[in-house]
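Troubleshooting log. The previous structure file for this entry was overwritten by mistake, so regenerating from the original sequence record. Sequence copied from the archived sheet and checked twice against the printout by T.R.
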Amino acid sequence: MTTFKNQDLGGPAQPLLQIRNLVKHFSTKKSLRSTTTVRAVDNITFDVYKGETLGVVGESGCGKSTTARVLMQLLDQDSGDLIFDAATVGSNNLPIKEFRRQVQMVFQDSYSSLNPRMTIEESIAFGPKVHGISSSVSLARAHSLLSRVGLEPARFAGRYPHELSGGQRQRVNIARALAMEPRLIILDEAVSALDKSVEAQVLNLLRDLKESLDLTYVFISHDLHVVRYISDRILVMYLGEIVEIGPAETLFTDACHPYTQALLSSMPSSDPNQRTEKSPLAGDPPSPISPPSGCRL
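Regenerated output below.
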């Protein structure tokens, strides 16, 4: 496995989050008397290094979002361990509440992520208040973060989510994630619902925040161009398993796994002389309920 290098220190970075043998299956009813098992995340192991952006790619249904929700502990894993900065998540050394203070998540749907009955400043200040910070300090932090993500507090603090555009709402969601002063942010398709000009602005904002606040990202997306732009390393998932992981540029220029090669060859090109005339991936992805025989790796 490739080790992420900390460019500032000149040596290998230390793991911030270690995932070991993570399993998450779902039981679904096949009929009144029988059930089937969806093997959404099937025994995966990887590390997220301090200060890096780890991109996660794969087709719909490969387990990306389920992995994100387990990492955030919105879903409990069936087995496996999450180790955050050398402490096991859920243990006495790192209770779930303390873990969630240090790890935050930004979701794809910017509108449903926000409470429509709360103003923008209330939404951002809500998390700190839950963790015992006074209302005045929480609101001051909310205004500061609004400025940091490019929204003037005097104009936006008192507005409601329906009064903002999609890009503005996603900036609010980023500010809300930052309100707890986390060390790791999980971004699940955080820019996929935005048009390209707004997407570029939000991506640049994320890069600036990462550098200025010393953040670590897990960035999940189906857009390979975006993942290449923002990621230090890239993890490729297929049917609930990891098939390849490595430095972003190395993976794009010298992919080893056939599935990764097929994904990369399906990327649209703006060069009219390099148009994709035949899709390298045909048909629907296999079902995680009954994966095909053979090794997925």
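Residues 196-213 form the longest helix (18 residues). Archived copy saved in two places this time.
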